[in-house]
Amino acid sequence: MRGFYIGRFQPYHNGHHRMVEEIASEVDELVLGIGSAGDSHTPRNPFTAGERVMMVTKSVVDMDITTYAVPIEDLERNSVWVSHVQSMSPAFDVAYSNNPLVIQLFSEAGVEVRQSPMFNRDVLEGAELRERMIRGGNWESLVPAPVVDVVDEIDGIERIQRVSDTDATGDESDDPE
Amino acid sequence: MRGFYIGRFQPYHNGHHRMVEEIASEVDELVLGIGSAGDSHTPRNPFTAGERVMMVTKSVVDMDITTYAVPIEDLERNSVWVSHVQSMSPAFDVAYSNNPLVIQLFSEAGVEVRQSPMFNRDVLEGAELRERMIRGGNWESLVPAPVVDVVDEIDGIERIQRVSDTDATGDESDDPE
Amino acid sequence: MRGFYIGRFQPYHNGHHRMVEEIASEVDELVLGIGSAGDSHTPRNPFTAGERVMMVTKSVVDMDITTYAVPIEDLERNSVWVSHVQSMSPAFDVAYSNNPLVIQLFSEAGVEVRQSPMFNRDVLEGAELRERMIRGGNWESLVPAPVVDVVDEIDGIERIQRVSDTDATGDESDDPE
Amino acid sequence: MRGFYIGRFQPYHNGHHRMVEEIASEVDELVLGIGSAGDSHTPRNPFTAGERVMMVTKSVVDMDITTYAVPIEDLERNSVWVSHVQSMSPAFDVAYSNNPLVIQLFSEAGVEVRQSPMFNRDVLEGAELRERMIRGGNWESLVPAPVVDVVDEIDGIERIQRVSDTDATGDESDDPE
Amino acid sequence: MRGFYIGRFQPYHNGHHRMVEEIASEVDELVLGIGSAGDSHTPRNPFTAGERVMMVTKSVVDMDITTYAVPIEDLERNSVWVSHVQSMSPAFDVAYSNNPLVIQLFSEAGVEVRQSPMFNRDVLEGAELRERMIRGGNWESLVPAPVVDVVDEIDGIERIQRVSDTDATGDESDDPE
Amino acid sequence: MRGFYIGRFQPYHNGHHRMVEEIASEVDELVLGIGSAGDSHTPRNPFTAGERVMMVTKSVVDMDITTYAVPIEDLERNSVWVSHVQSMSPAFDVAYSNNPLVIQLFSEAGVEVRQSPMFNRDVLEGAELRERMIRGGNWESLVPAPVVDVVDEIDGIERIQRVSDTDATGDESDDPE
């Protein structure tokens, strides 16, 4: 029995980890799909797919079940999304998500999808976490220790702070793109 | 004389239908271009191109003029938009639109474009219609009967309500993409 | 009961037409998917999607069943091809094809697909037909009359002959792309 | 010593020109990268790449240094952005930018990047300039004279006013895309 | 010390495995990049990225070093290829390849790349292997046992034979795309 | 009067230069479109757009007319090709080409296109030139002197020889993409 759980993991945090631990009690193997794989260096998506593969892999290394960390590019075409993730992933029997779009797409495709209400996720929101990283707040307590290591190693705090800036000179700059 | 009228038709509604009836008095044949053909399953674009082909085709079947329903993908490149729709459509002599961008692009390309001020479109706004579908209001009176049939057949109300949801568990979910 | 039949239709010819007539005896409605919709102006794909919509629509206008002519762009991703054509087309119950890749993809997706051995298609090969157009041979007898009209109207023979040329000056030209 | 300076140049204005004059004192040659090359006909990006090549080229023609105006398409993938601009441009030694994202990407790639705080850019903001064009205010004084000529030649004011409109009939139109 | 080795792995075979075993003696961790991730269902690329992730992962599971199997999509832009694989992969110190293009791209980017002449690879050519699968020859002896299991589980031989066919009816079919 | 001349310029050679000299007698300004801008590092397209901008710019610097070197990406959609090059280029009055496809596309769009039979181009074929570069033959005499400088500066001969190789170890390598 193989499960599938997709998220952007920007970065992988304790909320994700508890979801993974819950799923691990129901499956033998788990595929962690790393969505928006092509996005990086923005306030909402600061880390590359490769950096997120590291975060995820090192955070789940001690779990009993077999895990796969698979980057999945956006095709920006919802009607083929399920077929796309199925082609990028080892075959899975059940998907896990609390995201309404993901739930609807899997349902229409006849793939079993399970939801999970069990977590108070306010503090664990990716947005809250990235906000703390930008402001210089306490972010380390919101993620597994291996994620702290990876973020430090890639100078991730410096990166997210810089790309969240207005003009480095203080003026609003002329956006080149 | 062939006319061209493009819209997203999410879904095809009475405002569109009156525009088509007005155009039908001026042309022999009409191409209905279904724009953003690749978009679906979002609050603003809930239906696939194929579903919209059904809605349009069944709504205009009894008209005297010959009609074509042609999905047109977004190339996201305004400078080639006119060439693109011309390549996807049977050749047309005049375009109909109230959209400023469309009017400007056709004008720059030397294609005749006609506008139509005649309709009070507030209630017939696609946004208003989709809002009623989401809220469970009276949407059926805003569309031709065949559109009601198609939407019911594809469980369209359920779909637009679900993809408009925040987290299905009530929390704001971690967006996977 | 709705059928689906996809081809490039470059151009729509008598072999296609016999396939359509055979299918028409088994379904109530038929979707003709016009593949490689974005390709044109090459020896193998001389006509635009819009031109092919014209050829198909005018050739099947007198048939008893309801038909739809729908251009379908290449996504160049076989693993999502079935989902893609399903999103671009009115829902269909059975697909018709003699193409091995198409048959395999529909089969893997659990969509019923029917093949048709009944036609001697040598002379009706699209390649043979285009070769005659290029050489100035008798091509008109290989296509329905409406197709002859459309091709003449768009100066299609001149186009396919020119784009099949080596350098217009007789030398092999420096290919700009 | 060759410098690189990228902007959207919608349009090229006096703020850009002063940046170029400052850079010209530090390099022998300068590449002006015209970003978002594929975007046009919107309120924020009204002009095509070709039109911007004209504006830039004619505005810098009398400078002592050799300049290149090179359109650069968006790949929408920050992780390869530096490699992309390097492949589209003559090789450069130093980049100039005040944009935080650009500065971060060049820094991570080990390319020297210089910032410039010296200009009061409020009035020279591209957004302010486009706003004046839309409102019919005094925009000519914010750009080099050759840019006025190019904009007039292409009916640029008419274009940006029209694409900034709501529905040309006064109603909010049904957006076709 | 982390190494990087990219291949299409269509499928993963003994030649690949010996390369991996050789690399394993030189690094602590190894990333196996699965190239052309978006390609499948063709004679040259029969298996999806997900299926290849399975083949690779199960074949290297008993090795001492930590391995990552990462699908990498084609961007079809050689000038950004190195940046792209670096963004999709955990950071690596050395790349392994015998492919001239890959070697040249890594060299130009200043990434250390090692080649390996040690293997007689004639029989281990992916092309030879796929040819045997198509002809019904002995392919199982050319791949690790787990790969045989995966191929059998997905009916891979049936798939590659079918998509390698000419027309299923024996005639050369009209290619829909 | 502005002319437009597009080629891949891989690399810019004496045949191109004579065409440019001939065109220069008929126009006041000339745009040199550098086609397939995104392609590089292959035997047929060894140089990046930026490298080709250098070759072209330095070769025409002493001409009397004003010239623009503009990279143009492939959209792989012939039906919008003319609109695309027009959006990327300063407005031009006449195009120059000997390529049948280019001539046909400009003709259909109503753009004046002129051909040129005057040159014996056998030795000046891009293919012949690249073949000599690969074999180590005399290529320098086929290109303007500035092109020799640029190619030497970027180690262009080494690059084209390496990417034209079979496996660097002498075996045919497993193509990663």
Could you give the count of β-strands of chain A?
A: 5
Q: Profile the largest sheet of chain A.
A: 5 strands, parallel
Total of helices of chain A: 7
**Element order of chain A: H for helix, E for strand:** EHEHEHEHEHHH
C-alpha end-to-end distance of chain A: 45 Å
What portion of residues of chain A belong to β-strands?
A: 5-15%
Helix content of chain A: 25-40%
Q: What is the subunit organization of this protein?
A: homohexamer
Lateral strand order in the biggest sheet of chain A = 3-2-1-4-5
Computed Rg of chain A:
17 Å
Largest binding interface between chains: A-B, 30 and 23 residues
Structural class of chain A: alpha/beta
Shape of chain A: globular
Low-confidence stretches of chain A: 167-174
Averaged pLDDT of chain A, please?
Answer: 90
Brief digest:
The structure is a homohexamer of 177-residue chains. The first copy, chain A, is an alpha/beta fold and 177 residues long. Chain A has helices spanning 14-24, 49-60, 81-88, 100-108, 126-135, 145-153, 156-164, and strands at residues 2-7, 29-34, 66-71, 94-96, 112-114.
Written description of the protein model:
Chain A is of the alpha/beta class and 177 residues long. Chain A has 7 helices and 5 strands. Chain A has a 5-stranded parallel β-sheet with strand order 3-2-1-4-5, sandwiched between helices. In chain A, helix 2 (49-60) runs antiparallel to helix 6 and helix 5 (126-135) packs across helix 7. Residues 167-174 of chain A have low confidence and may be disordered. The A-B interface holds A 6-8, 15-16, 33, 35-36, 74, 76-79, 97-105, 108, 115-117, 121-122, 125-126 and B 38-42, 48, 159, 162-177.
